[in-house]
Structure formats: C-alpha cells, structure tokens
Specification:
It contains 17 helices and 14 strands. The protein is of the alpha/beta class and 447 residues long. It folds into 3 domains: 6-264, 3-Layer(aba) Sandwich (Aspartate Aminotransferase, domain 2); 267-365, Alpha-Beta Complex (Aspartate Aminotransferase, domain 1); 385-443, no CATH class. α4 (82-93) runs antiparallel to α10. Helix content is 40%, strand content 15%. The longest helix is centred in the middle third of the chain and has 21 residues, at 267-287.
Length: 447
C-alpha cells in the first residue's frame, strides 16, 4: 500500500512555501461572498491548498496508480462530477445515429449525453419496478434489432438491486455490441469480498464511478474506467477525457479522489465493510415479516449489500421515514417505491446498531395501509430528442388536456435523477399524474 500518492505528495511539497502576496488565480482568498463559516475555512486553508497547479505528469501518474488498483487499462479522474465522465465516455463510444439500447432507469446525465450525440434510443424496462434486468430480455432486444450497436445500463438500481451484468456482458460480446455500465452507486464494490463484482471485472467496455456516493470522497469526485478487455478506441477515450474534463479542476477534489481510493483498498476497510454486510443481512431477516412481498421476494444475489430498501406491509414509507427521522436517523430517499437508507462503508458499528434497534421499534408502531407502489412507464418517443429540444416550444401547466402532445423538456426528480419526462416523448395520463400542476415545455408545432 502506497503511503503517498502523486497529487497528495505534490501538494504537500508545494504547500511548504506559502506566498503571502499572490497575484494569481483563484481569487477566493478573503472571499466575502461565502457564508461566514466557509469564508473562515477559506482564509485559513482552502486558499493555499487550491492554489498550486497540478502538473499534467503528476495527474497522469496518479491515474496510473489508480488503474493499477482497479486493474483497468486506464482510469481517468473527473473532479467536476460524473456527468462529465459520462459525456466523455459516451462520446468516445457512440456516434450520431447509432442505435442504442438504453435502460429505463438511466440517470438524466446519461440521457443528456446521448441527446447531445443525437443517437437513436431504444428502451428496455423490466416488468418489475425494481430495474433488475434479465439477460434474456437484453438478448431478445439484440436479436430483434441487429442494428443496435450499444447497451447502456445502470447497476445497481437506486433501490439497491442488481442485474446479472456478467451474463449480459457475455451476450453483448456474442453480438459484438458495446456495453456501458453506470456503476455510480456501486463504486464501493470492487476489491471487496461479500460484494457483487464490478462491471469492470465482468467485461463491460466502460464503467462510471461516482466516488462521493458511497466511497466517501468530496462530492464531485468521479472516475471513468476503461477495462483491459474493452473494445473501444483507447486513444479516442483519452482525447474525449481531455476535451470534456474541466480545465479548472479543484485540487481539493483531486486529493480527495486519491485518498479515498487509497483508504478503500485496505484490509481494515474491507474487514469493517464485511461486518456491516452481516449486520444489514441480519436486519433484513429480522424485518422480513414486516416487509412488502414485492421486496421480500427479491433473490439475495440481486440485493446491494449495504442498502436498506423497505416498504412496510402496514403504513406508507413516508410515515416510517418521519418516525425514524424524529428519532435522529436521516434517510436517502422516500416515495411510494419505498424508504431507502444507504449504509456507508464508513458507518460505525455502534451507530448502525442504534439504527437497527430503532428501525425495528418504528415498524411495529405503523398502523395504516400501504400506498400503491410507484412504477415507471416505458417512454413512447415520437420525435428525435435533439429536434424536440430545438423546436419552437411553449411553457404550459401540465394537465389532461395535453395528453398526446410532445415534450420539449427533460424532467426528473433528483434523487434519483431518473427522467420522468423526456424531450420527444408523447405525454400520457401517467405523466399528468406524476407531474400534476408542474409547468413544462412542449413542442408548439410538430413537423
């Protein structure tokens, strides 16, 4: 295990010589535009940490070290967020008019990148609401349309359920189809026993990781992985990474990227994570009789080890969330899909034990009937998304009168960032129920 990484070592050396008068950018010293508590932090330390310019060779050396840990051909840092990694990766993988099979639960950043490319999108949506993709379903789509050049999936789902990426990857290889996996919510899997294998290890051609969600970095820290067996043009990926990556990266985020990777690949982190997996599995067993059958029937191999996804048999998820919140336990997300808790791999055993005890008590207190389960619908795209975005449009208050009109808008709740309405999609009664009283843009005159 390396004690020092290139970026961290460079900053350590540079910060030994602090300049009192600095006629340079950035200009955030004594920044009165910040809230007071952040302004104090800036004047005390952030100014100096964020000043040295990280040389290209230092940055590239750090990425090479990261690639050795992830066992990839190359791993690229994107300190501006996963959206930029997605844009770079998808531009390297696909071209205008490519036919791409796309998961219904892709993040809106993935959809935005594909709209920019102006690709033809075909949608795949499982029958269950939990976005567990069946390999046979993917294969059937590829057989039905041999023109499909790529498959883009999200795994795990926001609710913490996993698809059989290993089999899907083999199918994509069989039909010479590129496989891109947004593994943002599974960035903590790789290298840890008792966790699903990463798509990097299963034969995907590109994999995206958002380090802040589960690994513990500062918020924008993200990775674009190029697996060794990828069929993509490595040189083109490097050029796209250069084009779409920020030219003003934050040294804080870069240093955080290094340090959280280093911490992740330690025996201590692995041992603690395995303990937490045991605790979560025990909680699932203890609460099974209170769990809605749609969740309790999901095979254990399809469950992300550190996500608690719960829909009570009695009472709605929001009621349970409020009870737990009032007892001091915040939640990741709640709606009629259920109540979601992300157990951080850095969570202490003591705090999880307290959560577990209170969770069991809260479930027993519920008395109401459960809400109807939320379920996405497969988009009916009737106009190219890029054409819809560029069309003459008007902003209206969505109502049943607009059923059959064409959206010029991208609407999605964040979290989880899954689009509810897309540019070029025909508006249905489902959209009206989901987006009641919301103002959206619609195509004024469809050609």
């Amino acid at each position: 295990m390396r004690k020092y990484w290139p970026i961290s070592e460079f900053l350590s050396n540079e910060l030994g010589d602090v300049h009192l008068i600095r006629l340079t950018t950035p200009a955030h010293r004594n920044n009165s535009s910040l809230p007071e508590f952040l302004n104090n932090l800036s004047t005390q330390g952030v100014e100096f940490i964020d000043t040295p310019y990280i040389p290209k060779d230092v940055w590239e050396e750090s990425e090479s070290v990261a690639a050795s840990y992830y066992d990839t051909a190359m791993t690229y840092y994107f300190p501006g967020g996963t959206s930029y990694a997605v844009i770079a990766g998808l531009h390297a993988a696909f071209s205008h008019n490519d036919n791409i099979l796309v998961a219904r639960n892709i993040h809106q950043s993935v959809l935005s990148a594909l709209i920019m490319i102006d690709a033809n999108l075909q949608w795949i949506c499982p029958e269950s609401p939990w976005f567990i993709y069946d390999a046979a379903q993917v294969e059937k789509a590829l057989i039905d349309d041999p023109s499909i050049t790529g498959v883009v999936l999200s795994n795990p789902s926001y609710e913490g359920h996993c698809s059989d990426i290993a089999t899907i990857a083999k199918i994509c290889k069989k039909y010479k189809t590129k496989l891109i996996v947004d593994e943002s919510l599974g960035a903590h899997w790789i290298g840890w026993k008792a966790f699903p294998k990463s798509a990097i290890q299963h034969g995907a051609d590109l994999v995206f990781h958002s380090l802040h969600k589960r690994v513990g970095s500062l918020v924008p820290a993200s990775l674009l992985h190029v697996p060794k067996e990828s069929v993509l043009d490595f040189g083109l990926i490097k050029q796209c990474a250069k084009i779409f990556r920020s030219t003003s990266p934050s040294n804080l985020v870069l240093a955080s990227t290094e340090m959280c990777i280093m911490r992740h690949f330690t025996d201590a982190a692995l041992s603690h994570a395995i303990d937490l997996v045991v605790f979560v599995n025990e909680l699932r067993d203890e609460t099974r009789t209170f769990q809605h059958e749609s969740i309790s029937s999901i095979p254990i191999e399809c469950q992300e080890p550190l996500v608690v996804h719960f829909i009570p048999r009695r009472g709605c998820p929001a009621e349970l969330a409020d009870i737990m919140y009032n007892r001091g336990f915040d939640y990741e997300h709640v709606d009629t899909r259920g109540l979601i808790y992300f157990v951080s791999p850095q969570e202490s055993s003591t705090s999880f034990a307290s959560f577990r005890e209170n969770f069991q008590k809260a479930i027993i207190d519920l008395v109401n009937q459960p809400s109807k389960l939320f379920c996405y619908v497969k988009p009916n795209i009737v106009m190219r998304p890029l054409d819809a975005l560029r069309s003459h449009s008007q902003t209206i208050l969505l109502s049943e009168q607009e059923i059959g009109r064409v959206s010029a808008d991208l609407v999605g709740a964040c979290p989880p960032g899954i689009p509810i309405l897309m540019p070029g999609e025909e508006i249905s009664s489902w959209h009206c129920s989901m987006l009641s009283e919301k103002r959206i843009r619609i195509v004024r005159d469809r050609l």
